[in-house]
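can u pls check wat happens w/ flavin mononucleotide
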Amino acid sequence: MSVSDLFEPLSLLHGPAMRNRFMMAPLTSQQSGHDGSASTFDKEWIRQLAHSGYGLIQTGAAYVEASGIGFERQVGIHCDALLPGLTAMATSIREGGGLSAVQLHHAGHRANPDLGGVVAPASSRTVPGVRALTTEQVERIRDSFIAAAVRAERAGFDGIAAHGAFGWILSEFLSPLLNDRTDKYGGSTENRARLTIEVIEGIRRATGPDFQIGWRLSVERYGLRLEELREITADILDRELIDYLDLALWDSAQIVREGAFRGQTMLSVFTSIPRRGVRVGTAGKIMSAQRAGRLLDEGCDFVLIGRAGILQRDFPLQVKVNPSYDSPRVPVPAQYLRDGGMSERFINHMRGWPSFVQRASV
Ligand SMILES: Cc1cc2nc3c(=O)[nH]c(=O)nc-3n(C[C@H](O)[C@H](O)[C@H](O)COP(=O)(O)O)c2cc1C
């Protein structure tokens, strides 16, 4: 395959096809209103992305319950009052010709009490002095994910992506280290996957036939076990419960260091699973046209663009005109990001990421 194959459309099990293989990765920019409403900065960021040639654009992690907030100035989807801002973002993406998805998020044991979050661990051993969620509370959170998806549909989004990565609640429940429950949500692999599956199945039942469901999975840290995650993924793909799997790797070329898959690429552990009609893509240092194209050869149906899209919003359009396109080297001066249309708030947020924004000389 070649770089030009990235511009082939990609059908999904539900709803319209992606016009190409570029998906904008979920990026929290910490520039929303304090109540979770989409700010003018959010809307402008989405407007820029909407005209940048992506096949599908995910929003940053949006909290599904007020108590599930993880970050300051995070975008929310926990109540109907947020619909106008969400609708504006969905409309803007549609006008640009791409598909849209809200990333649904609950911070679980990492909810931030300073922002109104309520620490919600799967186990009583994770956070000293905080008891594990009761079964009823877990079911309430499941229902909040489902209600948020319905809200996303009302706002005009083509779908949602369930955030099952980085130790947030769905990922936390998958982990044998963070989940020692003895109810139906803990114990066996099947039980630890139950919350994720119930969220996905509940969203499918509650939304229309064209609504698209993505699932983001990470495999590192938080006591997650690769072999188990592969087993859970194989079941989800075999039952075609989702439209797309988004692998949240930090490096798409990462090699497995231990266990049954030692020496293989992490990506191949998942691309080798029979996927039926489900589409599979990865994130992780996709900074050039050539790298993006090669990932199709490695078994991806699509690629997720994160930092390359922050550096150059219209990464897909750049790749289209130049099959040798390569991202600017980081760190970049703040002025470079400013000139690219990035807000001061987002630039400040990016100062917290290693080696991304040049430090001002003293
Ligand atoms: C500023 C920033 C914000 C991010 N926010 C989110 C988020 O809200 N949800 C999520 O799942 N991942 C988030 N990520 C991870 C990215 O979606 C992506 O998986 C990661 O950056 C690797 O891709 P890249 O190498 O292309 O940047 C964020 C990454 C960055 C740099």
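The domain at 3-328 is CATH 3.20.20.70 (TIM Barrel).
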